[in-house]
Amino acid sequence: MISDTPHEPIEKDARTRRDVWVSGTWHRLPRNFSWIVPGYLAGISQPRTRDDICALAALGIRLVVTVMDEPLPAAFFQDTGVRNLVLPVRDSWPPTTDMIDHFFATLAALPLTDRAVVHCGGGVGRAGTTLACYLLKYGAMRPTPLCTACTNAAHDMSRAIRAPDCTEPCGNAVAPFMTPTAAITWLRTARPKSLETVAQEQFLKEYADVLWRRYACPGSDFQLVTGDGALRRNGQCTMPALVMLVGLPGSGKSWVAERLAARFTHVSQDLLGDRGACEFEVKTHPRVVLDRCNSTRADRAAWLALGKRPAVVVHFDVDLDVCAARIRGRINHPTLKSGRRALKQVVELPTLDEGFAAVYTVPSYAAAQELVDVLTGVSPPTANVASNGT
């Protein structure tokens, strides 16, 4: 019996699962569609039309996860009952830890009858890395629902991390299900060519370490939200070309940089490997967030000499002990060894007379969130407060 109901699609080819009966006609899905967890989580290449989204909706899919640097047109989703989660990742790059945490938090909030699909351009590189992270944590199975404490934490922080008061059974209280090698092997069997670059494979190993650290030390991620104090600003600049981050390893720089990725190109020496590559990226892109310690006036002057203007600087005024605790949680983070040494350094406070149009000071998680809103245009700048000299 043919049905048009969303949760009872008719598939013309059960092997490829590419032709779906929608509103009285067959529609071919984008290529590379396959279930990772049957009836719950799938992978696919980029949807190109609104009809593609309607066909996914006919399969019961209510969440489309876009792992690309550009979102799909909003018109694709209008009146379809499908929402779009965007994880802004450039081609050939891996997502970030926070992006995967946000992905898991969004999955955890789905009603039990809803389904999700993950895509990038071809459905194998960036999407494959995201799906491999799911296999790391849960295997090819539906996750155990989160406990109340972890559900509340996921809602408050948009990150699926284990709360200090987590109670079992809980999806965050289980050990990682697969090793990185097993996850890649499983995924490439189901979806050939998944994970296309060394960087994507390396990220999978690093995320596996994060999962094991969290399993061994429940609540350790909540050190990210310590501290208090409002965002402070000296100077004025509403549309900077360069956002220079200043602070010790573990102070929260990368957390902010990742959330600015929709408006700025994230330039991280940890990811690019050397200063020359960073300089090239700074010169090439119109709007850049520079994610380095940038602890001395001389170091900052060298970057300003590249001529990227107007420039603002963000100082992360975070307690040394908090930075140290965060670094201890980065088992294979590329800055681990250098980070320990850098904790002994003294940060020279940035000032306007270095050539910045504005100086922001971030003393807390709430201040970091406010900064992201200001620099992305979500909220107006804070009141001008002379806090770091002129």
From TrEMBL:
Top-level taxon in the UniProt lineage: Eukaryota
Transmembrane segments: none
Name of this chain's protein: Tyrosine specific protein phosphatases domain-containing protein
Organism, as annotated: Allomyces macrogynus (strain ATCC 38327)
Positions of the Tyrosine specific protein phosphatases domain: 117-202
Pfam families tied to this protein: PTP-SAK
MF term (GO), any: phosphatase activity
Protein keywords: Hydrolase
Cited InterPro entries: Cell-binding_unc_protein (IPR052732), P-loop_NTPase (IPR027417), Prot-tyrosine_phosphatase-like (IPR029021), PTP-SAK (IPR057023), Tyr_Pase_dom (IPR000387)
